[in-house]
Amino acid sequence: MEVWPPLLVVILTLCVVSLCCGLEAVAENVTVAQLLPMPSYHRGLATYNAKNFGAEGNGTNDDTKALMAAWKAACGASGKVTLLIPPGTYYIGPTQFHGPCKASTITFLLQGTLKAATDLKRFGKDWIEFGWVKDLTVAGQNNAIINGQGAASWPFNMCPIRKDCKVLPTSVLFVNNQNTVVRDITSVNSKFFHIALLQNKNIKLINIQINAPENSPNTDGIHIERSTGVVISDTRISTGDDCISIGQGSNNIDIARVHCGPGHGMSVGSLGRYVGEGDVTRVHVRDMTFVGTMNGVRIKTWENSPTKSLAAHMLFENMVMKDVQNPIIIDQKYCPYYDCEHKHVSGVTLKDITFKNIKGTSSMPVAVLLRCGVPCQGVVLQDVDLKYMGEGGSSSKCENAMATYVGYQHPEPCA
């Protein structure tokens, strides 16, 4: 006996129902899209609409399963594919958009708002994950927003005071992707980090807007770790921690035209806390503006590092500081806790680091702080002009830095 394909069974069933009950009854009770969601096509590109998979977008009902079902269909399709999240507010818990995908390219197009659940019992370490995908674009339209609803969770964050703290979920994690573009997205009120990049190759973040209150704990804007070929440009970050932080094992990082403030500034690190950390090399940061931040450009490494590593070949240039506490800072005695041992120097070697054309105002007298553990190698300050508006003017403070000074220098170099 011949077995009919499932699609044919669906079509014939619909025909029989139509004959028995009338076409109007069928249209009122069931649609083909509800039984078998199909993509629409425009210029040969397949588009999968999340609402055809049961997403309601009303801000109340849980759309987690619907969005993951839509992703599964788009990811499993051939050719160039778009997953469309149309206007609306989509309330979702932990959601994984994982590959590998059959699609040659896949675009996650957000036209509405993704709103996080607030019950921490539902979460692991992350809220939204894009992972193991090649040639992925995550793009926003119509003021697309990712809302972590972090205010309810911030009181439970003990990480600023305890080493053994439970880490709250990051809003969006990109892990093990290749050739990724993220653009035109706004992230607000993350529970922990807004965006984290882990083990990615060739990822660009363009025109990202990040907002959280100045007192929100550990809400780093963009954190980079064990990634190579990262580009961040034309972005504004206002948050309660580092605007951008570059963690261990990262290489070939290019950051340009980023506005930071409030926040803790732009950081390389912290480095040297854990066993087996990878080196950080080839970092180029340029054309940034810092307004009212705790730090400007900072390199921070832990004392008492369990293993040795290298942080090298970095250029920070064309920076504007406006009322920044520590415009230029190297801190190899980093420890944010009340009780720090200070027994050993950092195991991270700093080498070939240049600060060039750094100008503006400092809110504290020490505008340049170079506190190295073992002597830093090849630190260069070129054309630095940082003014303290209080009495006595700005000054420099150095320890094991052995820096080279080129061009105009204000404050005066360390003796």
UniProtKB/TrEMBL annotation:
InterPro entries: Glyco_hydro_28, PbH1, Pectin_lyas_fold, Pectin_lyase_fold/virulence. GO terms for biological process: carbohydrate metabolic process; cell wall organization. Belongs to the glycosyl hydrolase 28 family. The keyword 4Fe-4S does not apply. PANTHER family: PTHR31375. Its EC number is 3.2.1.67. Residues 1-22 form the signal peptide. PROSITE patterns: POLYGALACTURONASE (PS00502). The active site is at residue 264. Coiled coil: none annotated. It comes from the Eukaryota. SUPFAM superfamilies: Pectin lyase-like. Keywords: Cell wall, Cell wall biogenesis/degradation, Glycosidase, Hydrolase, Secreted, Signal. This is Exopolygalacturonase.
